[in-house]
Structure prediction request, 376 residues.
Amino acid sequence: MSSLYLDHFGLAKPPFQITPDLGFFFSGGRRGDILSALLHVAQHEEGIMTLVAEVGSGKTMLARLVLSRLPSTICTIYLANPSFSRDEILGAIGRELGLTNLPTSTEARLAALHQELLSRHSGGQRVLLVIDEAHAMPPESLEEVRLLSNLETEQHKLLNIMLFGQPELDETLGDRRMRQVRDRVIHRFELTPLTADDVAAYVDHRLRAAGWRGGTLFAPAAMALLIKASGGRARRINLLADKALLAAYALGKPSVQIEQVRVAVSELHDDIAAPSPWQLPRVWAWVAVGVVGMLVLAGVVWTRQTASAPAPVAGFAVASAPVPQWRPSYRRRHLRPRPLPRVWRHPSFPRRLPQRRSQALRRLTRLRLHRRGWWS
Prediction:
């Protein structure tokens, strides 16, 4: 990261380095609570623990903070690049424990690791294995880690394991072949992106830790654009804020305005323009793709059925069977009207209107025939 603007803004050291610096740890956004939970699990509980977060959210920072704050009674093994094969990961763990001459066979290596863990346990020392970027581990290596978690005494586990990875780690553990590893996970933590208020507090925290003693260095509009462009991820915040400070220094500005943040966004090749009203959301786009696919499939099926239908032979007419039609059987007993309601036979019925009475009888008869389907 650039250090040209340090004297211009009165800073003692670069505030937005992408390399994890434990002195810049930000406890907001539940980071402090998760760190306390990780320390408790490492010292008092046994089994496998997972922490999942998007790329650039601060997983490595938390892993190193856990390692730095554990007491000396806990021996830690840190694997930053776990893309080892099944045999290589056993060798890497053995070298971290001080075993130099490991056997070549897998069974012999497991036996040697077991003896080393037993000797450390008898000396009152817990062993913690921390694997960063665990989503990059092959399934065979994860299975080997599970076998290491089976090493135990009558009462205690000999090895506790922490897996830090991106959301792909959940997908790997969700595989049916990994169900034995998944069943041994005792805790799962998720590091979510920072909210808008947390991003503003994060930027101010890092500036203060770097030596800034003034007021708000980022204008409200510049901070709003920084929040939108970063997505709440710590690494993106650091990149954008550093480039914005450099742009403000190049122009001699005492603070960062929205124009400098726009320059930083353009250098990172990010398109943060508002989505077009004609652009469908991702879910509806997939729905539209599915509907189009169904229509295409229906057209293919119809075409095949039409092509497979036998063509008529010239000179011969294809006789089609007559379609039977239902005809009602008019019987006298069906046409016979039922007894009229009592209101028609009441003495108060107006006898001077025989024409209306006959019309009502005909309408009633048609209504009954219509209900039975004999009158259209």
Remarks:
- Residues 87 and 105 are 8 Å apart (CA to CA).
- The domain at 195-267 is CATH 1.10.8.60 (Helicase, Ruva Protein; domain 3).
- Residues 272-281, 313-319 have pLDDT under 50 and may be disordered.
- Strands lie at 48-53, 74-79, 126-131, 160-165, 185-191.
